[in-house]
Each structure stands twice: as C-alpha cells, then as structure tokens.
C-alpha cells in the first residue's frame, strides 16, 4: 500500500452541524427520538431551527469527520460529498480543506441548499440529530472520483448514504473501483435506525465488498436482530477481514478470523458523544494505514474517540498527533 | 463424559468464613490490604478476631464454594479438603454435605484447628480476607482420593493451595490421576497476590496440565505482568483448551483457540463481592459438564456470580436451578 497518495478517501454526506444544548422535556415535546439521527425536510428544518436554542455551527458529516480526524493525525485523507454553492457550502469546504483534507467534489448549483444537521445535546451527553439532507440528495455516481479512489489505500463509506437511491449507485461504483484498484473498502453502519432501514442491503454489502466494518453495539445488535452483544459478535466474526465494534464505556472489540482484541475504553469525562464513532474510525484507520497491530488500531480509535467526547462538537480540539503518540 | 458419577471434584482449603462489616479506616489502621487475601498465623487470628465487629460464620473456602454452587445447580460435586475434628470442622462438613456435595476427606486429629478466614466487608462491597490456614496446612498427597477423581468429568483446583508445599504435591498427584482418567483439569489463579507468589509454577501448570483456566482481570494481568487486559488476553489465548477471564462489571471473556466470547455482566446491586469468582466457576463448570455452548457457560457463570454478590457471604441464597433456567 506504500505507493498510494491517500491513506483514506471517505465518501459521505457533507453536512454543517448546528449544535445547541437541550433537555429531555424539549425532546419529548417535539417527539425527537433521543440518541439517533432522523431525516427531516426543508420545512421541518426551518420550524425546528426557529425553536432551537442558540446554536454553534461546525462542519460535520460522519465520514467527513473521519477524514478530518485522519488528516489531523497526520494521515493523507480525501473526502467526496455534495455541498451547494451557498454560504454553508463554503464553510464546509473551507473547514475540511483547512485541516488538510483533499476535497474537490463540484458543488451543486441548482438551488438545493447545503445539508445541515440540527443537533440537540442533552445534559447526559447524548446527541439527537435532525438532518435536512438538501444538496446531499443530489450526490450520484457522477460525483465518484475514480482517480482519488485509485490512489487510496482505504475507501471509507458511511451507511447514511443508503438513504438516497442515487447515492447507493454512487457507493456501488466506488466499491467496484476500489476492488479493481486493490483499495480496501471500509464501511460504517452509521446508526441503529439506519441499519433498520437497510438491513438486507447492509448484510449483502458486508458479506461482499466490505473489508473493514465499523459498527457500534446498538448497530451490530440491530443488524442481526439479537439483544446480546456476544451473539452479534459471533455472527459478524469472519464475515469481513476486520470488524471493529465500539461499545461506549465498555471500549471496543476488534476481530478478524483469527484474532479477537478486547480493548478497554479510555477514562474520560463525557461532555457530548457527537462524533465518537467517526473519531474512533479515524484513529483506527490511521493506525491501520500505518500498519499498526490491531490492538494498537483499537487503542488509537478509543483514544481519538475519547478526545471527541470530552468536548462539545464532533471534530477534534486537541493536537491529535500528540495524543496518538501515547499508543 | 456421560458415564461418570461426578461432574466436578474440587480440591481446596476447607475454611469457615467469619464475616463482619468494616470500613476503610479500620483496614488502614490494621494495615490490611483491601480486596485481597493474606495468610495469618494463629496468634494474629486471635488478635484480629478480638477486635473484629460482630461476625457471621459461614462455611467457605474458594473451591468448596464452587463445589457447593455446582451441587445447588443440580450437578454432582465432590470436595476434597482438610478440616480438624473440632466444632468448626463439623460445621464445615455439615454445610457442604447439606447442599449435596460428597465430602469424605478424613479430619485431622493432631491439634491444628479448622481454618478460618476473617473477612472484612467494606461499604464499597469489597472484601478483605485474613486467613488462618490451620488444619489445611496438613493436607497432602495421602488425602487425594483417587476413586473420586477417576469418577469425575472435571477436577477443579484452587491456586491458594500452592501456598503449602505438601498441598502442591497433592495437586500434582491429583492432576496426574485426572490426566490418566481422562478427567479435565480446571484451575483458578485465586488472587493477584497468590499469582505474584507463584507466577512461575502457575505458568508451567497452565502450559501443561490445565485444560480450563479461571482468572480475574487482576490475576491474568499479574500472571503476565502487563497492565492492559487485551495484552493479557492475547498472551493466554490458546495456552489451554478454555480460558474464562472475569472482569467484574465488565462481564467475562471466554476464549478457546478458535472462539472468543465477550459476555456482558448481569445488572445487579452489589452488596458483597465475596465468592463472586467461586460462583462464576460453579456456573461455568455446571454449564460445561452439561455440554452447553461456551457462550452459555459464560452467561451461567455471570448469572451465578451476580447472585453471589447480591448478598452478604459467598454461598448462594437463592434457588440456583431456577436462576439457571434463564440461560
């Protein structure tokens, strides 16, 4: 893998996050299912934004966060995703390029605005996301940059993309290019509700093109519709080259056909879990592309995730290279 | 294994526990290392007993507790261990037979009294044990009951026995008989300080005669002198047929050469952790001798351990057969 220009090319929704502190009463009043991501339309986005408390805007998007984390760790990362040629689109492009991620997907010019995710953070550090996809819905196979993928060691895809039919065609094209180019395909199941919406497609994908799978405990249980973690672990093990299952305060389990690593969580005061999974994937994939042991990949993932949850917002606020030196 | 009379024959110290509630100040004042077992002599035992709060006497002993648990689960269990022909010796023999364990080791008649363990339970549910071994120190090869072991599916040995040279000879004899009879050898490392005292012997034993190893997290880390659980797991995996590593609120990890199961802990209000490991071994070995899957063995272990820690004292207070029906 040494002659490639990029460690990881990530494909995902290009989203600007709007974070605001909230509470359980607000979530209940507005019927927002806590801890998950729901899709909303433009009208609902306006309505919710109107009643949301004072917010902080930050560039987000699950796979985009992972690409940003890899760049901040000193890796070479690229991102493919669709913004609009509006102000939030400029913000997104500026921020992801500013951390050193290659981003050259042409912006949409036909009127749909850049995606935003209204994120309600409750005092228990959970985040409840209401996402208006906007320009992301225009992402399709024509946006898949063959040259980028051919120059990458790992292609990273987010499950959220399966919510849009044209994006699925794009993912299939990207995976095909990766396979032909000898680039590993990594995939995150994104969200237990997303798994519920696309269980059959995800199972087929995992049994086929996926080399490296990221899923949290709720997602992997949902995938196999079991209520016990070990049962899910037994079902997924060996289905792809590497599976990395994240378990919040229980750490993570990293498994291949032969190895199983049980990695403890870092001790941290949790402020906001937004982006924990994205950060874990960043740390893990950075370790993986640096040819670290799986034990160290898992530890790096946990370490970067612990940074992400120690502050408000998904992208890192500390020097990740310095942090990673601990592993 | 179907034609054998006993599921498990356990060999260990035959001890009567004296439990009293205590606090950190008392432990510090009397320099008692919290959460561990220390050996004391007859004089210290008298002195400590004199200043101990009001106690409750219960038959104990680590491997004896495991044998009792197996019998209470409906399994056939036997116990080999040395009491004296005094009142506490009668109490011990009565209690273990009353739950259905075969116990026929001849009592000592030469004056050393039956072993007792002064157990100080602090409000954080930890137990600190000061053990006077008494008659247990007289245990030797002549007490190893060849017929019992030859009729057993599993021979279960406790690491605490390695504190007495003649007991070690007894253990070696027992393991040899077991191997010849096609009886599996199970072993518990007992206590991190015990591992520290006998690291080399334990490593040799585990690499040789042991088929089924029980160790808690502190013990397995101590065995390999590493401070990371996963590193210890990688070191121990494959060294014997099955390893069952208990992790308190993190559950347990059960590993063979091919399988690794990550079993969650049962949810329980912890009152007193005395006997948690013994109970886990009981549940696990009962499952094992009933030919349950390793996943179910681990779950049974966790379930029986959760019963043990939900009350004061090591031996079960609930109907274990009913409890086990949950798995």
Using brief descriptors, characterize the structure shown.
alpha/beta; homodimer; UDP-N-acetylmuramoyl-L-alanine:D-glutamate ligase; globular; five-stranded mixed sheet; 327 residues; 13 helices; nine-stranded mixed sheet; 14 strands
Tell me, what's the shape of chain A?
Answer: globular
Q: Which protein chains are joined by the largest interface, and how many residues does each one contribute?
A: A-B, 17 and 17 residues
- The number of distinct β-strands of chain A equals 14
| Cα distance spanning the termini of chain A | 22 Å
Number of domains of chain A: 1
The CATH class designation of chain A is Alpha Beta
Tell me the CATH topology of chain A: UDP-N-acetylmuramoyl-L-alanine:D-glutamate ligase
| Annotated CATH architecture of chain A | 3-Layer(aba) Sandwich
Tell me the fraction of residues in β-strands of chain A, as a range: 15-25%
CATH level-4 homologous superfamily of chain A = Ribokinase
Please tell me the overall pLDDT of chain A: 93
